[in-house]
C-alpha cells in the first residue's frame, strides 16, 4: 500500500510562488503601493477631506504660493473632482518649491507636463514633496490617476517665472497667477 505524503508538494510550490509574487509586486510599485501605505501608517499627517475649506492648513486663503524666509517657497493645493485649486500656480525658477497637496474626494495624481513629477494625492493625507524648476516657462498641470467622469478635463496651469519677477508677497499673502 502506497502511503500518501503529508505535504502536497505541488500545492506547496504554488503557494510559495504566490507569496513570492505578492512580495515582489510592492517592490516594483513603490509610488502606487508602498508610499500610500507608509503615508497611511504615519497617521498624524492626516487631514479631514470634508472640512478642508473650514479650518486648518488648506483653507482657501492659505492656498497658493507662500514665500519662506530662506528664499524657498511653499505651495499648498487641493485636488478635487475635477480641478486643482488654485487653478493657476505661480512659482519662481531656481528655488526649492515645497509642495503640500491633499484631496477633497477621490485619489488623484498631479503631474506637470515636461517634467518627471507625478504626485499621488489621497483624501485624508497630505502629500508633501520638494520640486525644482530650473527654467522659467509654462507647464500644464494634469491629473494622471483616473478619478471619474471628468478626469480627462482635470487640468490647470503652472507658471514658472524668473526669480526677480516673482512678486514680493506681504506676510499672510499667497501668490497665484493673478498676483503676477
Ligand atoms: Cu483627478 Cu483624474
Could you describe the 3D structure shown?
With 180 residues, the chain is of the alpha+beta class. It is built from 2 helices and 10 strands. Strands 1, 2, 3, 5 and 8 form a 5-stranded mixed beta sheet that branches. A hairpin with a 5-residue loop joins strand 1 and strand 2 (73-80). It is elongated and about 90 Å long. The mean pLDDT is 88. Dinuclear copper ion (CUA) binds at residues 108, 143, 145-147, 151, 154.
Quick tags:
alpha+beta; 180 residues; binds dinuclear copper ion; five-stranded mixed beta sheet; single chain
Short overview:
18% of the residues lie in helices and 32% in strands. The protein is α+β, with helices and mostly antiparallel strands and 180 residues long. It is elongated, with a radius of gyration of 22 Å.
* Structural classification: alpha+beta
**Relative strand content:** 25-35%
Q: What general form does the structure show?
A: elongated
Report the end-to-end length measured between terminal Cα atoms: 89 Å
Share in helix: 10-25%
**Rounded radius of gyration (Å):** 22 Å
Number of helices: 2
| Element order: H for helix, E for strand | HHEEEEEEEEEE
Secondary-structure blueprint:
Blueprint: H1 9-28, H2 30-42, E1 64-67, E2 73-80, E3 83-85, E4 88-92, E5 96-103, E6 108-112, E7 118-121, E8 127-132, E9 137-143, E10 155-161
The chain binds dinuclear copper ion.
The site of dinuclear copper ion has 7 residues, from loops.
